Amino acid sequence: MQSKLSDIELIDQVLAGNQAAYADLVKRHQRFVFTLAMRFAKGREDAEEIAQDCFIKAYRSLGSFQRQSKFSTWLYSIVYTTAMTFLRKRRVDTDSIDDEDTYIQVENQSSAYDVNDAENKSRSFYLNQAIEQLLPDDATIITMFYKGEQSLEEIAQAMGMEANTIKVKLFRARQRLKEKLERNLKHEAKELI
Amino acid sequence: MNNIEEKLWNYIDGTCTADEQSAINKLIASDEAVRLKYKELLALNREFATMELDEPSMAFTYNVIEAIRTEQALVPLKAAINKRIVMGIALFFVITLTGFLVFAFTKMNFASMGTADILPKVPANFKMPEVSMHFSKPLVEGFMFFDVVLGLFLFDAYLRRKKQAHTD
Q: pTM for the whole thing?
C-alpha cells in the first residue's frame, strides 16, 4: 500500500535510514518518470533503464535536495538531464534530435500496430500516438504541463531554461500536437473509407 | 491568427495579465471567429489533459531498491572502514615507537661511550637462528611470482576503478 505521507516527510524518513520510505517515493513517481523517459527513449527497455538510473541518482543526491522547489520538479530535472545524456551516449547528435524525420519510423510502427487492435482506436489512443511523434523536448513540456502538475516556472527549472522560453515552446508544441493529431485522425478516416 | 491563438492559450492557462484577460473577454464576446477559436482550443486543452501515463514493469520499484542495495554493498572496504579506527592504530604505533626511542635515549650514557661501546654487547654463547634452509630457490621464486600476479591484479583493479570513475 502506498504511503499517505508527503514527499518531504518520506525524504526525511529516507535520510534517517528508512529505505522502505524510498520505495514509497519511487512508487509514487515511477509512472510519470517512466513516461518522461519514454518521450526520449521510444522503447520500454531503454526507458526503464533511464527511469531506474534517475531514481538511483536521486537517492544518492537526496541529502543535497534544497527543498526550495517541489521534490517532483527536482526529480524531473534529474530525468531531463539523464535522458539528454542517454541521447548523447546513443550518439544522436542535436541535428538529428531536431529532425522530425527521425520519428517517422515510430509513427509507421504505431500505424502498423493499429490495424490489429481496434479497441485502441479511441481519441486517447490517437493523442498518445501523436505525442510519441513529437520531438522529445515538445513531448516533455506537454507531459510536464498537463500531467506533471508543473507550472511554467517549474518546467523551466527542471529543463534549465527561461520561463518565457518554455511558454513559447509550449505554444509551439501544442500547435504541432494539434497538427499531428488531426493528421493521424484524417489518415485513419481515409483507411476506414 | 497566431497572435490571437497565443493570447487565447495564455487566457486558458491563466498566464495573462488582468488587462489582457478583460480584453480577451470582450473579444470572445464580440468576435464570432475568436469565440470559435476559443472553443476549439478549450476542447483541445481538455483533450490534452486526458493523455495517459505509461506504466513501467511490475518489478520496477523492486529493481530500483535492489540496485541501490547492491551499490551500497559495493562500497570499497577502504571507504567503509571508519577513519577514526585507522587513525587510532596509527597513533598507537607512533606513541609506542616514540616511547621506546625516548626510553632508549634516556638510558644511554653518551659521556662515557667510546665508538666500541656504541654497539650492544652480544653474549658469547649467542647463536643466530638458521633461516636460510627455509628459503629454498623454488620457494623464493614462487613467492616472487605470487607477488607479481598480485601486483598485476591490483593494478588492473586500479585501472578499472579509474575508468569507471571517468565514465560516471
A: 0.65
